[in-house]
Design the sequence.
């Protein structure tokens, strides 16, 4: 078996005196892994801890490609090869699509699979909107730009926090196909999702987060066929077969 690309071991995270993550541990190789759970279970805090984003105060260990991430600055974590697509996209309203992409590309070094031109090939709609500002884009276009921006660091691992949030079903289906293409190219994807259809369509491994802990590990097939687990862990109506 290949060595894991990401190892989270005994991770605890706090907001002041409130504990948000409790002894979170898991490993992943170059694969797609989904972390699912209801709101407030600690999924976004986990993403922030991996990326070195405050305010979480974290203890334990997060190792990526042999490097310990805890205590490392976010820009250094990104430079190691982790792309991040945050919940809510976090674009600059006054910057155009092209400015968003060129800004990241200009800071990248070394051999690059991903350039602004390659992002435009992946998302032709962005090429049509390249002179529009971030605030002028639709939700789907904003998500395409957020993903494209993350790809420009040429990551080995892509961490995505609720990428389907607020998007129309047709846009979600398009993004799932994009994610599958990226995985086939060898990109590892850590997907945080409440949308069970997206999570099970993309990742076979499903980690269920409850109250700041990894409560269970299951598979997309097992979860899709277990209506009671869907209600219990996500509070959703069962997936249609």
Sequence:
């Amino acid at each position: 078996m290949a060595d894991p690309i990401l190892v989270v071991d005994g991770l605890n995270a706090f907001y002041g005196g409130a504990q948000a993550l409790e002894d979170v541990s898991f490993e992943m190789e170059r694969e797609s892994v989904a972390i699912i759970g209801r709101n407030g279970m600690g999924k976004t805090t986990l993403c922030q801890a991996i990326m070195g984003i405050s305010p979480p105060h974290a203890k334990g260990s997060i190792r990526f490609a042999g490097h310990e991430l805890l205590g490392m600055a976010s820009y250094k974590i990104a430079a190691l090869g982790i792309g991040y697509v945050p919940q809510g996209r976090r674009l600059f309203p006054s910057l155009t699509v092209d400015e968003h992409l060129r800004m990241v590309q200009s800071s990248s070094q070394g051999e690059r699979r991903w350039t602004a031109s390659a992002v435009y090939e992946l998302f032709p709609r962005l090429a049509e909107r390249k002179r529009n500002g971030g605030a002028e884009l639709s939700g789907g276009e904003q998500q395409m730009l957020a993903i494209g921006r993350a790809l420009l660091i040429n990551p080995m691992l892509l961490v995505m926090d609720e990428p389907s949030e607020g998007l129309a079903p047709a846009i979600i289906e398009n993004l799932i196909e994009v994610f599958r293409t990226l995985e086939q190219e060898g990109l590892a994807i850590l997907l945080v999702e409440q949308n069970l259809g997206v999570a099970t369509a993309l990742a076979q491994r499903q980690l269920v987060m409850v109250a700041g802990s990894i409560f269970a590990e299951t598979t997309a097939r097992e979860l899709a066929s277990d209506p009671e687990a869907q209600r219990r862990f996500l509070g959703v109506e069962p997936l249609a077969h």
